Structure to design on (405 residues):
């Protein structure tokens, strides 16, 4: 496979290019040095067959919508199939309650696409695929993945394998972990941080959307001891798609529109995931204050993080460290000057925009990080991870340009 891929290092204006041409197309914007893998379109044979479990957004549980939601699954389909991933072809899609139906009957906008009909998980022929994206809800994924062939590469988009301590899983998800041995081999899939581990993994636990916005700025800073471990205050805002597609009163249009509200206060299930990874980065226990808020928009996510800087450290030091850390990363951008990150400018893309500002309280800094919760916060990062696991360039098939307006 490596002979099929050319590695280049070039200056790219804005970091966007056509990945299926030998020469990247330049777009006029800020210049930064990034690693680029160019894939020749002549090699677009879709020879790696993949499956999507939970492709309709439903599970076999009566009247239960997947918390991962239809939008995430649609982004996977868009990136793999419609965006013409040169190596991945979708040959299996499961959806127990929609088994026997075509994908076009479930999602009419896909009616012209040549995709397989939906089947129940129990009837799926996994001998036809090399890898799967598991888009089933929390609590149902463990037993299903445990029963899959050990030859498969798996990216799980639920929370079932994110917490390394199965006791933490039981405490926060209200049920015992059902695949404790499998948990031991799961690799946490924060691509820019754990790239080397992901490359050799069989099972990757794709990070949560909120944690992704938090880890990308904080992990490098904690590793470098530039911020204190105490008094990390995080307020995160999410579009409604981040709450899933379940038929909840709180998600109704009249409840969500023209207002905002916080939820999961002190007990949001991403808290143990956040503290696990930040503690690993700091090599010491980290406890955070985390408050998520639902916003009246369909997609997008922003985390505003207030931190205490280490003695002698300035906002300029923090920003310079982040710029250096992500200098060669395609999808993470530290914005210049006092430009505030805006969810609109990453919508539909796999990008994360970060900036750092001085707080009015001496010695503290405000870090703002934005992503599209359905792409970098879910399907885009999942595709990055599977690309790495299959030994192909991690940016393959991932659309770069944000959707604007």
């Amino acid at each position: 496979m490596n002979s099929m891929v050319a590695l280049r290092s070039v200056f790219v204006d804005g970091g966007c290019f056509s990945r299926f041409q030998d020469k990247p197309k330049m777009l006029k914007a800020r210049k930064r040095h990034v690693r680029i893998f160019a894939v020749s379109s002549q090699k677009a044979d879709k020879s790696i067959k993949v499956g999507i479990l939970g492709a309709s957004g439903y599970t076999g549980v009566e009247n239960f919508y997947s918390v991962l939601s239809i939008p995430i699954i649609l982004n996977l389909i868009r990136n793999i199939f419609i965006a013409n991933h040169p190596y991945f072809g979708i040959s299996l899609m499961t959806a127990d309650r929609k088994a026997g139906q075509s994908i076009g009957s479930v999602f009419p906008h896909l009616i012209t696409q040549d995709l397989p009909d939906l089947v129940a998980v129990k009837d799926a022929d996994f001998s036809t695929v090399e890898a799967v994206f598991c888009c089933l809800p929390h609590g149902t994924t463990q037993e299903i993945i445990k029963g899959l062939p050990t030859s498969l590469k798996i990216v799980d988009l639920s929370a079932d394998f994110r917490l390394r301590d199965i006791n933490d899983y039981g405490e926060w998800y209200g049920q015992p972990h059902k695949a404790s041995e499998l948990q031991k081999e799961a690799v946490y899939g924060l691509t820019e941080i754990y790239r080397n581990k992901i490359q050799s993994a069989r099972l990757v636990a794709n990070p949560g959307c909120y944690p992704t916005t938090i880890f990308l700025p904080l992990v490098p800073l904690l590793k470098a001891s530039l911020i204190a471990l105490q008094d990390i205050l995080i307020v995160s805002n999410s579009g409604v798609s981040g709450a899933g597609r379940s038929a909840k009163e709180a998600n109704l249009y009249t409840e969500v529109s023209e207002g905002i509200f916080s939820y999961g206060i002190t007990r949001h299930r991403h808290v143990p995931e956040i503290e696990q990874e930040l503690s690993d980065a700091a090599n010491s226990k980290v406890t955070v204050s985390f408050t998520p808020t639902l916003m009246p928009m369909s997609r997008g996510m922003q985390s505003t993080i207030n931190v205490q800087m280490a003695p002698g450290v300035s906002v300029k030091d923090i920003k310079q460290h982040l710029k250096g850390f992500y200098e060669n990363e395609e999808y993470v951008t530290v914005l210049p000057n006092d430009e505030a990150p805006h969810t609109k400018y990453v919508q539909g893309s796999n990008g994360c925009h970060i900036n750092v500002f001085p707080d009015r309280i001496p010695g503290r800094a405000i870090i703002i990080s934005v992503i599209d919760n359905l792409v970098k916060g879910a399907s885009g990062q999942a595709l990055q991870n599977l690309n790495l696991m299959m030994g192909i360039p991690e940016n393959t098939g991932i659309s770069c340009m944000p959707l604007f307006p």
User: Anything to note?
Assistant: The chain has two domains: 48-208, 210-377. The longest helix spans residues 209-223. The chain is about 25% helix and 20% strand.
